[in-house]
Design a protein that fits this description.
The chain has 19 helices and 28 strands. With about 675 residues, the protein is α/β, with parallel strands linked by helices. The chain has an eight-stranded mixed β-sheet, with helices on one face. Helix 4 packs parallel to helix 13, helix 8 packs antiparallel against helix 11 and helix 8 runs parallel beside helix 13. It is globular and about 70 Å long.
Length: about 675
């Protein structure tokens, strides 16, 4: 059938890929959602889940929520009647104002996460909640908080990783605790498959990415720290520890190094189940470098997962795999790598100092407390994804608890709501998407009309703010103004324009338009290539790589020279050609975000006495003193119930030995000066 309209947009789901999408509307009204063939990630195909969903339930008015609903039956029964937006928002506004007057904003909880990862729909509601001083349930505490906390303690921040385009300069790619074949299918299919660099995968499961790797270290669950220390010993034994880099940029390595002799590959094999020969081989391949380390979110979801993350994060610093082309590590690439100001998106200035943040670990107990009067859920489904399910569901049954849920579908959480407000899908409004893997900015273009009376998240909260009589301008900023500001901050040199009848060029401009690069800093070894200019190959790509355009293409690195093992212990590497590398950008921790961290101690045998530190800064403190203990190999260790700030700290073990090592980034002259003393020391920023 002849297409009447073709619109290009971007998938905003919680995925590394951020795929380009083509929405084709035929003359007879038939709509087909497919992958954009000119998009550098999707290359014409969507993953199976999204291909089925976007051509099925996502556009099915019999399954989607299309009108506001008011509960008429018992909570949890799912019995509702449709009402108008005016009736729903009017009643909610009246009850919210009464709670604010009587109990204050902290009595209203709100939960959210990555139901959509587009910038406006995913953050604009925070403006409303910041203004009323509501209690936020920290979204990352149900997912990847331990990893963020660990990297922030060690490196100052966690959302600036390597630039994936520098893989052409890498001689090794290590994927630790991630499953790209399932959670980043196009990255698995293209980015990993097309590199000639040896690939090492560390994962208890032999998933598709692991099966296609050159080396699969199939460790026992929960032994990541032990494996990392065994790898470090092998690297140290062959003299590949970059002492010059450590002396210039780190503190505390000497105390880590003194513990390595006990962490032999043989002990590593006994602890992790990984054969010693594979530990040795992987260590040498990684240490030869330049190497990229992709630290997934999977392995920090364990008891003392923060310590496991810190142990693995020692590898790039110990080997000097930071700050050079084809090297570095990545947890997530945040919006700030493209110049976006998160405080602007959330109107952080509206948030009162008295506003609280709690962990998902504490959500059930807070919902039980009479002091909690209302909860709003948006972009998540707490009745199936938050801890203590039975207890949480019982708490949601409170008749005196006002629950408002924004949703596309009638979920388990929505069944408990007093009001269910129909949210629009990403196909039904304009927004901006930024991948948390690639350094790109993409248009999410409205491709179809909203189903029924569904509204985007941001429009729902604009209307609720108006119904409550709120007047702050940030609560009513339009999508067009928000998008214009985001593009001005990111500076891709493009506009969010519509051209022709129903066609959206989605930030791509014309084929002859050059892309002016945004600056990307290099805190975690990400390439910084200045203001090069990148010309698009075709007119239809909706994801625009930032950070100076694509790095200069270099001939693919040859495989690392073979490695010889002697008696399983004496390690020797066959000579290989010179490894010319290019140092790019400063190793600099941004001002006001410098943190110090206590990396994992001995991850193998007996438990370690935790170290303590204290931070002092002119600005608001960004880290606090706390106890850290390592994973214990052998025997089951019961994890304590933790809040978000406790999740990385763990508890002191009954069998203790002194450990006061610390490791952090030292700061170049252009950054704030920092002093550190381990064990009850302090850090001062000036």
């Amino acid at each position: 059938m002849r297409n009447a309209a073709t619109i290009r947009t971007t998938c905003p789901r919680d995925c590394y890929d951020a795929c380009g999408i083509v929405v084709k509307t035929s003359a007879d009204g038939t709509i087909n959602v497919v992958g954009d063939p000119d998009h550098h990630i999707s290359r014409g195909a969507l993953c199976g889940k999204c291909s089925i969903g976007y051509n099925g339930v996502w556009r099915d008015p019999d399954i989607r929520l299309t009108r506001p609903l008011r509960r008429v039956g018992p909570k949890g029964a799912g019995r509702f009647v449709p009402v108008s937006w005016e009736e729903a928002l009017g009643d909610i506004a009246q009850r919210f104002n009464a709670i604010l007057d009587r109990d204050g904003g902290s009595a209203i909880l709100h939960t959210h996460y990555t139901g959509t990862c587009s910038l406006i729909a995913g953050t604009f509601p925070l403006r409303f909640f910041n203004h009323i001083g509501a209690t936020e349930v920290d979204p990352d505490t149900v997912c990847n908080k331990a990893g963020h906390a660990a990297l922030q303690l060690m490196y100052g921040e966690s959302t600036r990783g390597f630039d994936p385009r520098t893989i052409d300069g890498a001689r090794c790619v290590m994927v630790w605790g991630a499953n790209p074949s399932a959670s980043a299918p196009h990255v698995h299919q293209y980015w990993l498959a097309e590199t000639r660099a040896p690939k090492i995968v560390v994962d208890p499961i032999r998933h598709e990415t692991a099966a296609t790797a050159d080396i699969h270290l199939q460790l026992y669950p929960g032994t990541d720290g032990a494996l990392a220390f065994a790898i470090l010993l092998v690297i140290a034994a062959v003299g590949h520890i970059d002492h010059a880099f450590l002396a210039a940029h780190a503190e505390g390595w000497e105390e880590i190094e003194r513990q390595l002799p006990a962490c032999t590959p043989a002990l590593g094999e006994a602890t992790t189940g990984v054969p010693a020969r594979l530990i040795e081989q992987a260590a040498l391949v990684y240490a030869a470098g330049p190497s990229l380390l992709w630290m997934g979110q999977g392995f920090q979801r364990q008891s003392f997962g923060g310590n496991a993350m810190r142990a693995v994060a020692l590898l790039p610093a110990a080997t000097g795999n930071l700050g050079r082309y084809g090297a570095g590590f990545l947890y997530l690439n945040g919006w700030d790598t493209r110049g976006v100001d998160a405080d602007y998106l959330t109107a952080a200035r509206l948030k009162p100092d008295s506003a609280q943040t709690i962990s998902h670990m504490d959500l059930a107990s807070r919902l039980e407390a009479p002091a909690t009067k209302a909860i709003v859920t948006w972009n998540n489904n707490i009745a199936v994804s938050s801890p203590e399910q039975k207890r949480l569901r019982r708490a949601l049954e409170r008749d005196d608890l006002l629950q408002v849920t924004l949703e596309l579908f009638q979920t388990d959480t929505a069944n408990y709501a007093d009001y269910v407000l129909p949210a629009a899908s990403f196909l039904e409004f304009d927004d901006v998407v930024m991948s948390y893997f690639d350094a790109s900015i993409s248009a999410q273009a409205k491709a179809i009309p909203s189903l029924g009376e569904a509204l985007p998240n941001q429009e729902i909260f604009r209307r609720l703010a108006a119904a409550m009589g709120l007047t702050e301008p940030e609560l009513f900023e339009t999508d067009a103004d928000l998008i214009a500001t985001l593009l001005d901050q990111a500076k891709p040199g493009l506009t969010f324009d519509r051209a022709g009848r129903g066609r959206h060029d989605s930030l791509s401009g014309r084929a002859d338009r050059a892309i002016r690069a945004a600056r990307l800093s290099n805190t975690l070894g990400q390439s910084r290539v200045g203001r090069q200019r990148l010309r698009r190959r075709r007119t239809s790509a909706c994801a625009i790589p930032l950070g100076g355009g694509a790095p200069r293409r270099r001939r693919a690195a040859p495989p690392v020279a073979g490695i010889e093992m002697v008696d399983g212990q004496q390690l020797r590497q066959r000579p290989q050609g010179s490894q010319a590398t290019r140092r790019i950008g400063p190793l600099c921790i941004p001002r006001k975000r410098a943190r110090v961290g206590l990396p994992m101690a001995h991850a193998l045998g007996s438990a370690i006495k935790p170290a303590r530190l204290r931070c002092v800064s002119r600005s608001r403190p960004t880290c606090r003193g706390g106890s850290f203990s390592p994973i214990r190999a052998g025997g089951r260790q019961t994890a304590p119930r933790t809040t978000s700030t406790q999740s990385i700290r763990g508890t002191r073990s009954p069998r203790a030995a002194p450990f006061t090592a610390s490791m952090c980034r030292s700061l170049p002259s252009e950054c704030p000066a920092m002093r550190f003393r381990a064990n009850a020391g302090e850090v001062r920023l000036r």
